[in-house]
Design brief:
- This protein is of the alpha+beta class and 500 residues long.
- The protein has three domains: 9-313, no CATH class; 320-432, no CATH class; 440-496, Arc Repressor Mutant, subunit A (Orthogonal Bundle), CATH 1.10.10.
- The chain contains 16 helices and 14 strands.
- A nine-stranded mixed β-sheet has the order 2-5-6-9-1-10-11-12-13. The chain has a three-stranded antiparallel β-sheet with strand order 4-3-14, with no helix packed on it.
- Helix 8 (349-357) packs across helix 9 and helix 9 (362-380) packs across helix 10.
- The chain is elongated, with a radius of gyration of 30 Å.
């Protein structure tokens, strides 16, 4: 069967208006699961963090985790939501091998948090993303399909199920339909996922590590012809697990759906799988409607009625949120909009702020993280925060620079040693002998030799061509392996040649 060619993106968005929706699942970082006391440690041996409750054994009764409920209320407050005064859990019934009870405890028509918003910025323009609901549920287990080439159930020899994840507190954040984004739709979707991740991380309720599955996005896309008011049929691309992939999934679905519509076909309402290697999506299963899940109130759990006093206590405990923090550091560090954007995009904001707290100036901290260390992270193919160097170590290197013990060239060698596991900055300096030669006696002897080796240059300096002293300074730096105090060396040269 032939595959329909994609429509060029620019043509697609000129003919159709994208309508987006993002459903984000976030695992809360509680010590125990949502309805039992089992641990939630990531990476534990399979099926070692389970009990009769999370396995759904007969007679086992759930009890709601207060810390998890606090976490979802904090998320709701940070997203400007209304917090329900009364709500309850519901059973969502469907069968899948990683669902030990064959139903999921979730919320349906009575969510805990509703009607919020989150503002994001793309290319200098602010987009307000409406939040439909934020509700609590439990996570499922994890299936592993063994054999076959794709890791999916099709073509696998057999499947294994790990129930360690089953029952972990899971927050689902559902946006309202996102319209008016035009050709910026993929960027807006990515910006929303990025801002949401930063917000939840700031709250301290989840590590939101997408590579470990603690934050997963389902991306809904539909298209409507320009000038039309009737929305198209949407697809839902499931479990997109990186910010870049959110953008790519939206872009691909726009190109694919536009090609389907332009050819006279109809978009099928279905779930789709995103493929990281190709940036494409493929069909999954037809999408169920709410009634297919046969929701009904969970009979084993009492309703929740968070008091207004409790909600206000949690509101007062919220930390500085990302948008306010960015405005503050931009003002305190005297950054332009472009400089702030570059810092945020590089994932360097936390690192720079921690380096400043450790004693470095904002300018120096930004210089090291955004230049030398960012370059090394790119070379190694890792995130900046994953480099084996701490903000305290960066601040210590800058302290030695400020004290005249290192210059920038030597400082870069210190970072090289730290990143290579040779120890902290002081140990690297000692082991490699990297301190600047600033002792006048030692430096004067080296300067005398440079003058003796370059008599023509020395004569030019004596004759009043002070700029020629740069060549002698270079000779001193070469003789010391870059360890000389260049400013002091220049001063000594000029003094010795009578040009000071």
């Amino acid at each position: 069967m032939s595959t329909l060619a994609l429509m060029d993106y620019d043509e697609a968005v000129s003919r159709y208006e994208p309508v987006l929706g993002v459903e984000t699942h976030i695992e809360l970082g509680t010590a125990s699961k949502m309805f039992c006391g089992c641990a939630t440690t990531f990476g534990a041996p399979p099926n070692t963090q389970v009990c009769p409750v999370c396995l759904g054994l007969p007679g086992a009764l759930p009890v709601a985790n207060r810390a998890a409920i606090e976490g979802i209320i904090k998320i709701g407050l940070a997203l400007n939501c209304e917090i329900a005064e009364w709500c309850r859990f519901a059973r969502k019934n469907y069968f899948y091998p990683d669902m030990p009870k064959n139903y999921q405890i979730s919320q349906y028509d009575e969510p805990l948090c509703v009607d919020g918003h989150l503002d994001v910025e793309v290319d200098g323009e602010t987009y307000r993303i409406g939040i439909e609901r934020v509700h609590m549920e439990e996570d499922t287990g994890k299936s592993m399909h063994v054999g076959g080439a794709t890791g999916r159930i099709q073509g696998a020899d057999h499947s294994l199920v790990d129930y360690n994840r089953a029952g972990i507190p899971l927050v689902e954040i559902v946006t309202k339909p996102i319209t008016g984004t035009g050709d910026k739709a993929p960027l807006v979707a990515r910006a929303y996922a990025t801002e949401l991740r930063e917000l939840v991380r700031a709250l301290g309720v989840s590590d939101v590590r997408m590579e470990q599955g603690s934050m997963r996005c389902d991306v809904n896309v539909s298209l409507m012809p320009r000038g039309s008011s009737q929305w198209g049929t949407r697809t839902e691309t499931k479990n997109v697990n990186s910010l870049r992939s959110v953008e790519r999934a939206v872009r691909h679905e726009i190109e694919r759906q536009a090609a389907v519509l332009a050819s006279g076909g109809a978009v099928v309402q279905e779930t789709r799988h995103f493929h990281e290697d190709s940036g494409t999506t493929t069909a999954g299963r037809s999408k169920e409607e709410a009634q297919d899940y046969r929701y009904f109130p969970e009979p084993d759990l009492v309703p929740m009625a968070p008091s207004r006093e409790w909600v206000e206590e949690l509101r007062a405990s919220l930390p500085e949120l990302p948008a306010a923090r960015r405005r503050r550091v931009q003002r305190e560090w005297n950054l332009s909009d472009l400089e702030l954007r570059d810092v945020v995009n590089a994932g360097a904001l936390d690192l720079i702020e921690s380096t400043v707290k450790a004693g470095a100036s904002p300018a120096a901290a930004r210089k090291w993280w955004m230049n030398e260390l960012s370059r090394r992270a790119t070379e190694q193919g890792v995130e900046l925060a994953d480099l084996p160097v701490t903000p305290e170590q960066v601040a210590r290197v800058q302290e030695m620079v400020d004290a005249g013990e290192l210059n920038d060239k030597l400082a870069r060698q210190v970072f090289e040693g730290v990143l290579a596991g040779e120890g902290d900055p002081d140990q690297v300096v000692a082991a490699r002998g990297l301190k600047i030669v600033s002792d006048d006696g030692e430096l004067a002897a080296i300067v005398d030799q440079a003058i003796a080796d370059n008599p023509d240059v020395a004569d030019k300096v004596r004759g009043g061509k002070v700029a020629a002293a740069g060549a002698l300074v270079g000779a001193v730096m070469r003789a010391t392996g870059g360890k000389a105090d260049a400013a002091r060396a220049r001063q000594l040269i000029l003094e010795k040649l009578g040009a000071s």
